[in-house]
Amino acid sequence: MQICKQVSCESFPCEKINKEGYIIPDIDLDVEKIKIIMISEAPPTNQEDYFYAKGEPYYMETTLQLFKDAGYDVSSIDDIINLGVYITTAIKCAKLEYSVPTSVIKNCSEILEKEINLFPNVKAYILNSDVAIRAFNYISKRTIGEKAISTGSTYKIRHNEFYYKNSRVFPSYILTGKNLLIEKSKRKMIAEDIRNAFKLLAT
What we know:
Elements: E1 36-40, H1 58-69, H2 77-82, E2 85-89, H3 102-116, E3 124-128, H4 130-144, H5 154-157, E4 162-164, E5 167-172, H6 184-200
Helix pairs in contact: 1-6, 3-4
């Protein structure tokens, strides 16, 4: 299944966002083999830096290192997919500013909901940013009537167990960023979340 042909933004209603940076994964995969979905914040301004871009995209530099920190010997996005992991972003257009408007998160959560619904066998969601957490909570409130993730700083709530339908949900930190590789505490926590998500696959 080619993801970008199944879900899309049709009306582009959002403001204060870089619509030229719109992207949904242009990848053809077996959705039934995906067991973990990681949701980061936003696409890069330069689409050549996106997770699924050819060559050595910037977004993959930190992502590959995080998987290695978790104990998985990966060297490409294909290796990650072969582990049963799909990576996407909570919002589908690049940011113009550091913060993302609430209206953008809410609008994009409807696209994200359609996207995650393509995957029938997901056992864990890793929400890699505050934006991803907020978007996922919009989805959860629409579908099951309550937030999947309780309010609070990620470092305070991350050891609690959260669920969406029958899947575990991990509030975590952003996968990308110039400072991530030197922020050892965040790297350690993201790697721990990845390991804990994989433990669910054995149950």
